[in-house]
Prior knowledge:
It is built from 3 helices and 6 strands. The protein is of the alpha+beta class.
Amino acid sequence: MTPEQLAQAQLAAYNAKDLDAFCACYSDDVKVWRMPDLTPSLQGMAAFRARYASGPFAEGQVRAEVAQRIVMGSKVIDHEFVYGRGDTPTQVAVVYHCRDGRISEVYFFSPDGA
C-alpha cells in the first residue's frame, strides 16, 4: 500500500474498531511519540496493540475524522478531529512515517503543544 492508503486503512480500521486490521497497517517495531516529548510513548507492536485495545478500541463512541491530509513522499500528515472523548471534538495533528509498506513512526501534536 502507498503511505496515503496506509493512513486511510488505519483510520477506517480505527473507526470500525477492528484491532487486527488497524495493527496490520503498522510495523512490528512501530514507535509513537506524543510531542513535544523526545522519547517514544510506545515502542513495539505488543505495547501498541495493548494501548489501543484498552484505549480507543474499548471506547465504542470514539472515532476520528480527517479534516485535511497532506502526503509528502513517505509521510502523511493528517489534521484530525477525535469525537467521543468529551462534549466537543479534540483536534490533533498526526504525522505517519511509512517504511516498507507499513507505518513505522507516528507523531501526535496537540493544539496546545502538551
